[in-house]
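sry for the spam today, last one i promise. struct tokens for design, 468 residues
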């Protein structure tokens, strides 16, 4: 904070915002990049499988419903960034702070559990997905060299360790505001591999060959049993919910925007842009992937080896996935880092181990602020998520469960409840009834998706041998 007095008046006006913090410089373009980075992640890879479980009718409808719900509730959430007035009120820099100031009490604690459990889960899920893509690169080259029937089994665990080392290094970047370049790079990568997946699907469709598809997806008695059909349907809904999971970091993304134009207006523009772009890719990946593979669509359509050739393009797509998830991991991990570091700083403000920073110059990179506590704690967190990823490497089931855990509380319930309070919506008015109905509908969907995903994890654990 600048000291009072005329000497610092110019410095304050040019370097600090209205809340005394360093001036934010983000625009709706950079916020859109953050959103695309957060949304187009490992979820896009499972959409062909999800549509195969749902079929031509329910698949596109559910994709569209989740898109519209996410867009609507994200706009409600962006208005709560400042409270009580969405333009001139006090900033809520974190999701939990927003819930505390608007809803208070027990809701604040429930939000904290929901948000941070989900964030931890997403970083674990990204560790799993990145390692699967790295393995796919090695297997793709093996299949190209030795034929498509060759035994090219490769364990995931060494690649999870490699991914973890990269995340330990990147986690030393002090805060979210210094990650714009990483988000833009990751967004480009997400466009790249989604486009490659779409292109390969189109090429497979154009190449002919019969695949079984249907209005209701996989067929009972032919592809699956009736119970498998039910559980897979629920799990696929969770996969689609996970694909739209970015509400957990929406507030942190909005906090990067400069004060003028008003943050809520710019964030709505960014949200519309980001969700529209991702929904377009989701529909293309889901529907074209289903057209290409039919009811046999793999759980991950770039690593399930429905595509073998051109092997180099499959490799590039998986390289893009890895680069994207390296950046996306940081987008979702930063709120966790900030929570622990802020809490420790408040509790032990006199500790040099926790508060003192050192400026270290690195060749070709520049100067970097190093803090001993931050470096050790963040490294330990990455180790923790890497170990859990090794213990539970179940792609579709984990994604479905994460989507179920996060979608209802963070994407629907808290945004609608905060809007009702901030906008002072009268009880039992049409708007009040509509938002309550939406929340109840999404709760039912969430419970079904969670049940399907848990059943999938239990089923896979029966035959799973850790570290094999």
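last one done:
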């Amino acid at each position: 904070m600048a000291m009072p007095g005329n000497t610092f008046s110019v410095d304050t006006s040019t370097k600090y915002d209205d809340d005394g913090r360093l001036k934010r410089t983000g625009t709706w373009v950079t916020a859109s990049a953050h959103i695309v980075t957060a949304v187009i992640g490992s979820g896009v890879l499972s959409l062909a499988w999800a549509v195969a479980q749902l079929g031509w009718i329910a698949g596109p409808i559910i994709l569209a419903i989740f898109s519209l719900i996410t867009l609507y509730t994200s706009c409600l959430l962006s208005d709560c960034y400042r409270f009580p007035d969405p333009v001139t009120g006090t900033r809520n820099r974190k999701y939990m702070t927003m819930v505390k100031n608007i809803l208070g009490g027990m809701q604040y604690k429930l939000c904290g559990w929901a948000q941070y459990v989900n964030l931890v889960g997403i970083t674990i899920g990204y560790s799993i997905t990145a390692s699967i893509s790295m393995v796919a690169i090695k297997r793709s080259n093996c299949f190209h060299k030795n034929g498509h029937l060759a035994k090219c089994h490769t364990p995931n665990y060494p690649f999870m360790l490699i991914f973890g080392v990269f995340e330990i290094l990147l986690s030393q970047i002090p805060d979210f505001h210094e990650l714009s370049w990483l988000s833009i790079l990751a967004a480009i990568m997400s466009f790249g591999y989604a486009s490659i997946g779409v292109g390969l699907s189109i090429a497979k469709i154009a190449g002919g060959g019969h695949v079984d598809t249907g209005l209701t997806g996989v067929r009972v008695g032919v592809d699956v049993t009736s119970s498998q059909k039910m559980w897979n349907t629920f799990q696929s809904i969770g996969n689609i919910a996970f694909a739209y999971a970015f509400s957990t970091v929406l507030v942190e993304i909005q906090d990067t925007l400069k004060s003028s134009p008003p943050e809520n207006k710019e964030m709505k523009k960014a949200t519309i842009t980001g969700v529209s772009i991702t929904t377009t890719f989701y529909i293309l990946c889901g529907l074209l992937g289903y057209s290409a593979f039919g009811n046999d669509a793999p759980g991950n359509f770039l690593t399930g080896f429905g595509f073998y050739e051109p092997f180099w393009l499959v490799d590039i797509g998986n390289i893009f996935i890895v680069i994207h998830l390296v950046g996306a991991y940081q987008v979702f991990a930063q709120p966790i880092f900030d929570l622990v570091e802020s809490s420790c700083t408040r509790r032990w403000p006199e500790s040099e181990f926790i508060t003192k920073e050192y400026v270290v110059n690195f060749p070709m990179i520049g100067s970097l602020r190093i803090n001993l506590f931050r470096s050790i704690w963040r490294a330990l967190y990455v180790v923790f998520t890497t170990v859990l990823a090794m213990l539970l490497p179940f792609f579709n089931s984990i994604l479905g469960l994460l989507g179920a855990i996060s979608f209802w509380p963070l994407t629907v319930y808290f945004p609608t409840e905060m809007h009702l309070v901030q906008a002072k919506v009268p009880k039992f008015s049409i708007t009040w009834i509509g938002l309550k109905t939406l929340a109840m509908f999404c709760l039912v969907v969430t419970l079904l998706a969670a049940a399907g995903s848990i059943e999938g994890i239990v089923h896979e654990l029966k035959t799973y041998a850790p570290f094999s």
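The chain is about 70% helix and 5% strand. ok im logging off now
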